[in-house]
Amino acid sequence: MSETSHTIYTPPADLVATAHVSGFAAYEALCKEAEADYGAYWGRLARELISWKKPFTQTLDDSQAPFFKWFADGTLNVSYNCLDRNVERGLGNKTAIIFEADGGEVTKVSYSQLLAKVCQIANGLRSLGVKKGDRVVIYIAMSIDGVAAMQACARIGAIHSVVFGGFSAQSLRDRINDTGAVAVITADCQVRGGKQLPLKAIVDEALALGGCESIQNVLVVKRGGNAISMTEGRDKWMADVADAQPTTCEPEWVEAEHPLFLLYTSGSTGKPKGVQHSSGGYLLHAALTTKWTFDLKADDVFWCTADIGWVTGHSYITYGPLALGGTEIVFEGVPTYPDAGRFWKMIQDHKVSIFYTAPTAIRSLIKAAEANDAVHPKSYDLSSLRILGSVGEPINPAAWEWYHKHVGGGRCPIVDTFWQTETGGHMITPLPGATPLVPGSCTLPFPGITTAIVDETGNDVPNGQGGILVVKKPWPSMIRTIWGDNERFVKSYYPAELKGYYLAGDGAIRDEKTGYFTITGRIDDVLNVSGHRMGTMEIESALVSHTELVAEAAVVGRPDDTTGEAICAFVVLKRPRPTGDEAKAIAKILRDHVGKEIGPIAKPKDIRFGDNLPKTRSGKIMRRLLRSIAKGEAITQDTSTLENPAILDQLSENN
Ligand code: PRX
């Protein structure tokens, strides 16, 4: 459970004076406009923010709910909107991306240069036969090439699916297989924290696992120059495919509902879901939220520290800021290399004015700063900052206050943005020149977004009483379906008992007086570790896939000071329960195994062995008891239905 504090921070007057949404009354007016005529509101914004090749005549089509369509008879191209349009309005020489490599080298590209690069890659993809509707998997680190590859797919109507560079060969294989992709775009390696880590070699491994027969081409960007193997006929250097191509490329004009991308995320069952996003509705919300939540202006330097492998990187690196003609930072490295002052130094060096990061990063940097003045924000000039943001997990009031005081110098509003891979963009968030802030609360819905808190039958619950977070009306950037699985989409997000509301999967509570929202955490079997979503069943499947050692496994989360939640696994082995050094050795084997199956981010922090797991007489694992044990709490719950009570003591022992 996260808490809120009671201190209220009103928006600074100079910001209110110039903000895109200026003052609380302006926020309320937008909400009212949306309420009065929902379709007209979104239609107005879609015309203002997007250039349409063929204008739409209808905003929302709900005739096949919950498969909603937005702006369906309009056509557009997302890459045209992010690049050509900016060049056409005179921003060709403006810096689009300031890239800082892990080692500190800086490369800048202007809008004209980025457009040329995207066109060359798009032409290269076309020359290989990649066409509208084909899926392209992108497995690459933070780079201009990564952003350009995504934009190039958008340009030709290919559907990209970016797989975070920390995922294992097995996870990559599963995603390639599910998308049926025709090509993979990768690099020879990625560089993080001074180390080269393989990428192409992992692609090779993934493809060798089988089930990826749809892949015809693997395009490799040169990053480290490390030795890699190239399979004749399949693998090509990106430079050989793209560099000789023309620097112009006619965009593929697609219908607004044409899928822009698929992005896999964890749900409460073992298999990650391919969240499908549209072109028109998605771009509208990515652009609009960048404009209003971050108040992006022409001379801002915007920095979102997320990876392009996550939705935050899609909406607030690849699409939103570019759609508005902004200047943004793309950072290859990690916040702690060469030291924990890296973020502060980069803000100082590039005069960053809007900074958007995750609570986990802030919490770990607080620890480092408190131990060493040299990496404390006070040792840097952060006066360029005007707005701070937080995303991915609840930010606890203590971290919020520190961020506000030490990073923002007490002058910068913090926008605590609640949203999800499925929502495409911000859902509940302050607007910096309008909304008074309360640390620990994501405050109020974005104008036009109809979030509410209901009970299990979809009835509104009063403020002050927690419940299930839903969104009552469809919105333009919402998930369209789960790739290839309409039924799972309906079951996961539109359960029959919720009256046609979108189920977010989070619990929330509204403040009695202000109506401000606080997210209280997931209500399904999904954990949030360092802002990364992990399904407990996915980790359990990975553990039991070690068939030689593991008989049974149950995974739960427990609170963690730095990572928000930590993964705790209870494991029954196929051999007698180990203790001492043997237990440590087996725990390491299993951790590495999960790392190999899913990726290092899924490695359990804690692994405990038992002769059995706490189960009801009907054989159901009692996870609530495991959660208490993981937290180190005394068991106070009712254990009368438990078949084997003695197991609780055994699992509580640290082995
Ligand atoms: O539990 C909520 C949490 O992260 C989940 C969404 O994760 P993902 O799809 O990976 O997207 C992360 C980036 C948007 C949500 O269901 N979450 C996200 N933002 C917040 C949050 N919890 C509390 N406060 C937030 N600001």
Automatic annotation (TrEMBL):
UniProt cross-references to CDD domains, sorted A to Z = ACS
Reactions performed catalytically: acetate + ATP + CoA = acetyl-CoA + AMP + diphosphate
Q: Which residues bind Mg(2+)?
A: V544, H546, V550
Tell me which residues bind CoA. Answer: R192, G193, G194, K195, T312, S530
Domain AMP-binding enzyme C-terminal, residue spans: 538-620
Key words of the record:
Acetylation, ATP-binding, Ligase, Magnesium, Metal-binding, Nucleotide-binding
EC number, as in UniProt: 6.2.1.1
Task: Give residue numbers for the modification (N6-acetyllysine).
Answer: K620
Which residue intervals define the domain AMP-dependent synthetase/ligase in the entry? 86-475
What are the names of the required cofactors? Mg(2+)
Q: Which GO terms describe its cellular component?
A: cytosol
Q: Where is the Acetyl-coenzyme A synthetase N-terminal domain?
A: 27-82
**What are the recorded GO MF terms, alphabetically?**
acetate-CoA ligase activity; AMP binding; ATP binding; metal ion binding
Enumerate the HAMAP family for this protein: Ac_CoA_synth
Q: Which family does it belong to?
A: Belongs to the ATP-dependent AMP-binding enzyme family.
Its name, as the record gives it, is Acetyl-coenzyme A synthetase
Q: Give the gene symbol.
A: acs
